[in-house]
Each structure stands twice: as structure tokens, then as C-alpha cells.
């Protein structure tokens, strides 16, 4: 049996990549959804890729449908690179999920292929793992880090939700990893808001980080009252540390350590 990893630290045997990379064919990504153009998840207009699968279970996760590793769809890296290269008027791509560092090798390959045709494409990613842990991660995870311009790191902590730029809770950090956005700290640290999209057939979706916790549950409840068919949030939520501890105590502990949420 492999040695247990440090709290919230990926490694070859028990890292965030382990459950997903073994399941996918080479040159493919398991994707929940993509968005051609978004102005609320990073600098400028950006494409967004939500990967499928996450080993963490942060209470109040805004994208619970992306957590199972068996969901989503398999997409060839080459196909996604073509899509990114041909999109008009975008500054970069934001990688969300799910846990992007669970498919780090394929995402690094994707950025290389897209930048071969679009050299100025910037890259931002979200991760429930701290930067320090990712730097001790696999070769693929370190390779993806090397290709990023911005990283939002750390688990989402519902009890510490705030009105923050591109982040959900105040334990999460917005970290420039290249000179591209070295001045990011000079920007106002307030939410960029959310964007709503209506697709073919009337499908409704949204992107962004709400200013208050519970936004998704409230929105889905209201849409249901209006007659829309809404996929319900997963009601099965585990509470670390047992029932004798308050949710806030558990969440505060998560924020101050690199422990798995």
C-alpha cells in the first residue's frame, strides 16, 4: 500500500491526477463543458474549460456536477487546441473544473498546441490545492504550472465566502506565475460578477463567482419555481471531523491547512 501523501499534496500514488489520468486515453481530456467567451473568470475576454473530476469535496462547491470522474465527455486535445486557436477576440483561456491538476499532462499538452498557433494566449487555472503542494507534485503538474500566467489556489471554504476578484473565499489566493499579470494586485479586489448564457434549445447556464454563498441553490430553486427543469444539487454532503463540530470550525481548519476539504 502506498505511503499516505501529505495533506492536500499531490503525488504519483495519491495525487489529484491519480483517479483521472489512469482512466483516459492519451491525447484526450475529460471535459464537463466549455465556453467560447467569458469576461468574469480572469483578465479580459477568455475561453473557459471546465474539466470533469475532482478528488476534493468542498462544501458549497459551485460546480458539483464536475466532481465525479465518470461524468462529462472525452474530447481530443487536438480538437480543443483547434477550437482555442480559432476563437476570435480572446485574451486567454481559464482552466476550471473539477480539478485541472487532475489532468495536468493533457492540459499542458493543450496549452502547447494552442500556443503554437496563437503565441499570445494567456493561461489561468483554478486548483483546490495550494501552490506549495502543486510544486511538490508530479512532473505533469509542475509542467502545467510552468505554463500558467495566473493561478487561483486553495479549497473553497463556504464559511469564508467573500466579494473577491475571481475567487470564492478569502483563503484562496490569486497568484501571478509569470510577468504577464505581475500587476494583478493593483486591481480592485471585488467580484467580477456572473454572466448568463442561453444556448440552443433554451438551455440556461452561468459562469463566474457570486458575491454571496448559496447563490446556486437559490437560483436553481427560483428557476424550478418558474418551470425550468433544473438538475438538483447533490444533497449528500460529508462533514469532516464528526457531528460534534460546527461547520464553521471545520471550514476554518480547512482554510488554514493544506488538508483535503
UniProtKB/TrEMBL annotation:
One of its GO terms (molecular function) is metal ion binding. Pfam families: Fer4_12. CDD domains: Radical_SAM (cd01335). Residues 1-14 have a biased composition (Low complexity). SUPFAM superfamilies: Radical SAM enzymes. Residues 1-23, 237-261 are annotated as: Disordered. InterPro entries: Aldolase_TIM, NrdG, Organic_radical-activating, rSAM, rSAM_sf. Its cofactor is [4Fe-4S] cluster. Keywords: 4Fe-4S, Iron, Iron-sulfur, Metal-binding, S-adenosyl-L-methionine. This is Radical SAM protein. It comes from Streptomyces triticirhizae.
